[in-house]
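Thread amino acids onto this structure.
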C-alpha cells in the first residue's frame, strides 16, 4: 500500500501507485481542461503532486508544452534568479565491490586502473581545484569497506577543509558515497559535510536488482531508505537523482517525486538538490545497450516538470552533458553546474592521457572553469561560489523556510556578487575579469538595502579580504 509517511521503501515508493499514476497520465495527456487546472495550481509555485506533474510530463499539446516551459522559467527566476552555483567533483577512489552494470567501477572490470588517493595526493588535487577558483566540491568514492572505509572518507574531508593555498579554500564539501548506517551518517554530519548525495539510479525494484546483480548495493530497500538514515543521523540537506536511460523516464520521474514527497511528509524537508544525469559512455560501458535513452527534447521537458513540481529544490547538471544541452536547461530549472570537471581519480593535478582510462564517465563539456564562467556571464547569468547558507547554519528546514517564502534572493544575490568578485580578482583571465566587472556593476543596481554594504565589502575584497557573507 502506498504510504508517503512509511519508513519502508516499497511503501513510500509504491510500484502499484507508480503504475496507476502512469495510467492516469496517459489517459489525461490531452485533457486540456485538466492540464489547465494543473497549470493554474502550478503558477502558485508551491509545487505539484507526483500525479499532477506526471500529466504535464505526458502532455503532447504543443501550446501547453510551451506553457510548461515558460512557467518553469518563471519559477526558476522567482526562486533562484539569474544565479548559477559552481562546483567540481573530486574522485577519491575507484575501488568498488559492487557489480553495477552501468558503471565502469564495477568489481568485474579487471582492466580498469584502480587508484585511491593518499592524503598528499588529495592535497595536490584540492590545490589544483583551488587554483581554478573552486570553493565547493562533491567528493566521490566507490563502495569498498576495505579500501574506502568511513574512516578514509572522514580523514579525506578533514584534509580537504584544512588546505589553505594562497586565497583558496574549500568552504563546502558535499559527499556522494554509498548508502551507510545512521552511525556513519552521524560521523559525516560531525565532519561538517554540506549535502549528502545518493542517486537511486532506478526506482523500479525489479530493474534495480538486475542492474545491481552483486554487492551490497543489490539491496534495494537499504539503498532507497538511505536518505531516511541520513536525516536520522543529523544530515538535513540531501540530494536525490536517478540515472536516466536505465528505466522508463516516466517511471523514474514519478518515483523521484514520490521520494521528495516522502521526505517532506516525514521530516518536513524535501531534497536540497535533485540531479538529472543520463547514462554516458565509459570504459566497457556502452549507453546504447540500455534501451531507455532519452533525447534532448525529452530531457528538457523532464527538467522543466521537476522545476514546476519541486520549485524549492536546487537542480544540478554536470559536465556529462554538452554545452549546448546545458545552455538549454539552465533557464528551465538548473541552478548548479560543474565546471572544469575530471571524473577520474587524480585527474586534476598533472593530468595525463591515461587518466581517461579510469574515468567514471565521459565528460562532454570539457571547457575550463574560466571558460564556463565567461560563458555564463555572456548568457546573462551570475556565477556564484557562495557557501554562505552552509557557513551560517541555514540548512535543512531553516534553508527551506527562506527558500519556500522566496526570500532566498535576499541572501544569495549579494553573496553571489561578492564571491564572483573573489573569483575575478584571484583566478579570472583578463577577458573574463572585464566581463565580470561589468556584470557586477549591473547587478549592484538591482540590490535594495544591502547595496551600500555590498559595495563596502567589494572594496575590502579588492584590499585582500575574503569570505564575506550575509
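Threaded sequence (470 positions):
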Amino acid at each position: 500500500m502506498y504510504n508517503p509517511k512509511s519508513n519502508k521503501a516499497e511503501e513510500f515508493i509504491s510500484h502499484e501507485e507508480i503504475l496507476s499514476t502512469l495510467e492516469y497520465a496517459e489517459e489525461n495527456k490531452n485533457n486540456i481542461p485538466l492540464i489547465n487546472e494543473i497549470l493554474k495550481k502550478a503558477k502558485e509555485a508551491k509545487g505539484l503532486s507526483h500525479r499532477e506533474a506526471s500529466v504535464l510530463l505526458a502532455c503532447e499539446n504543443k501550446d501547453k508544452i510551451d506553457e510548461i516551459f515558460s512557467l518553469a522559467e518563471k519559477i526558476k527566476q522567482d526562486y533562484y534568479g539569474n544565479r548559477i552555483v559552481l562546483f567540481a567533483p573530486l574522485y577519491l577512489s575507484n575501488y568498488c565491490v559492487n557489480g553495477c552494470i552501468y558503471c565502469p567501477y564495477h568489481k568485474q572490470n579487471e582492466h580498469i586502473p584502480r587508484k585511491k588517493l593518499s592524503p598528499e595526493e588529495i592535497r595536490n588535487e584540492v590545490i589544483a581545484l583551488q587554483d581554478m577558483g573552486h570553493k565547493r566540491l562533491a567528493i566521490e568514492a566507490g563502495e569498498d569497506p576495505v579500501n574506502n572505509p568511513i574512516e578514509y572518507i572522514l580523514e579525506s574531508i578533514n584534509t580537504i577543509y584544512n588546505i589553505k593555498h594562497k586565497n583558496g579554500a574549500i568552504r563546502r564539501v558535499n559527499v556522494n558515497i554509498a548508502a551507510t548506517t545512521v552511525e556513519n551518517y552521524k560521523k559525516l554530519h560531525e565532519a561538517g559535510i554540506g549535502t549528502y548525495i545518493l542517486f537511486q539510479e532506478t526506482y523500479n525494484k525489479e530493474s534495480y536488482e538486475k542492474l545491481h546483480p552483486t554487492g551490497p548495493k543489490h539491496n534495494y530497500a537499504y539503498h532507497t531508505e538511505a536518505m531516511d538514515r541520513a536525516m536520522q543521523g543529523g544530515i538535513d540537506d540531501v540530494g536525490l537523482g536517478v540515472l536516466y536511460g536505465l528505466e522508463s523516464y516516466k517511471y523514474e520521474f514519478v518515483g523521484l517525486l514520490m521520494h521528495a514527497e516522502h521526505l517532506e511528509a516525514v521530516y518536513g524537508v524535501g531534497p536540497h538538490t535533485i540531479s538529472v544525469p543520463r547514462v554516458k559512455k565509459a570504459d566497457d560501458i556502452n549507453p546504447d545497450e540500455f534501451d531507455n535513452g532519452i533525447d534532448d527534447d525529452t530531457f528538457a521537458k523532464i527538467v522543466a516538470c521537476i522545476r514546476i513540481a519541486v520549485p524549492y529544490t536546487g537542480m544540478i547538471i554536470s559536465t556529462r552533458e554538452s554545452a549546448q544541452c546545458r545552455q538549454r536547461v539552465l533557464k528551465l530549472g538548473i541552478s548548479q553546474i560543474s565546471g572544469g570537471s575530471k571524473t577520474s581519480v587524480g585527474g586534476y593535478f598533472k593530468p595525463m592521457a591515461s587518466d581517461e582510462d579510469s574515468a567514471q564517465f565521459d565528460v562532454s563539456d570539457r571547457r575550463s572553469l574560466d571558460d564556463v564562467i565567461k560563458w555564463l556571464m555572456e548568457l546573462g547569468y551570475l556565477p556564484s561560489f557562495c557557501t554562505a547558507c552552509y557557513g551560517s547554519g541555514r540548512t535543512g528546514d531553516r534553508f527551506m523556510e527562506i527558500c519556500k517564502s522566496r526570500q532566498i534572493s535576499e541572501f544569495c544575490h549579494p553573496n553571489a556578487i561578492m564571491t564572483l568578485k573573489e573569483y575575478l580578482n584571484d583566478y579570472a583571465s583578463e577577458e573574463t575579469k572585464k566581463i565580470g566587472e561589468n556584470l557586477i556593476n549591473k547587478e549592484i543596481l538591482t540590490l535594495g538595502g544591502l547595496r551600500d554594504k555590498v559595495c563596502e565589502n567589494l572594496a575590502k575584497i579588492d584590499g585582500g579580504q575574503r569570505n564575506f557573507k550575509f
